[in-house]
């Protein structure tokens, strides 16, 4: 199962961690129309953002970046 099939689970977990997650599709962009952003005070004012041609790819990269910051807290496979 790809991350694009687990969006509700991922967003719920982000909320539990006190983070904000946003997913956007921009139909006016021909190149990399998907955007995934994760932000929150726990990230020290920074945010994690990925743009791409595939929602699954953006989510996979965002989760990998988040796991670097929260190696024990993001309990999603």
Sum this structure up briefly:
With 77 residues, this protein is an alpha+beta fold. The protein has one domain (3-69).
Rounded to an integer, what's the Rg over CA atoms? 12 Å
Shape: globular
Distance between the termini: 10 Å
Strand ordering within the main sheet: 1-2-3
Low-pLDDT stretches: none
Percent helix, as a range, is: 25-40%
**Estimated structural class:** alpha+beta
Number of strands: 3
Provide the domain count. 1
**SSE order, one letter for each helix or strand:** HEEEH
Percentage of residues in DSSP E strands: 15-25%
Number of helices: 2
* Biggest pleated sheet: 3 strands, antiparallel
Mean of all residue-level pLDDT scores = 89
Question: What features would you describe in this structure?
Answer:
This protein is an alpha+beta fold. The protein has one domain (3-69). It has 2 helices and 3 strands. It has helices at residues 7-16, 55-69; strands at 20-25, 34-39, 47-52. A hairpin with an 8-residue loop joins strand 1 (20-25) and strand 2. The longest helix is centred in the C-terminal third of the chain and has 15 residues, at 55-69. The protein is globular, with a radius of gyration of 12 Å. The relative contact order is 0.22.
Blueprint (SSEs and pairs):
Layout: H1 7-16, E1 20-25, E2 34-39, E3 47-52, H2 55-69
Antiparallel strand pairs: 1-2, 2-3
């Amino acid at each position: 199962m790809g991350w694009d099939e687990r969006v509700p689970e991922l967003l719920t977990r982000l909320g539990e961690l006190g983070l904000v997650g946003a997913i956007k599709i921009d139909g006016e962009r021909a190149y990399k129309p998907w955007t995934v952003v994760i932000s929150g005070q726990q990230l020290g004012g920074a945010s994690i953002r990925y743009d791409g041609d595939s929602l699954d790819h953006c989510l996979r990269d965002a989760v990998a970046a988040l796991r670097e910051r929260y190696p024990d807290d993001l309990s999603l496979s």
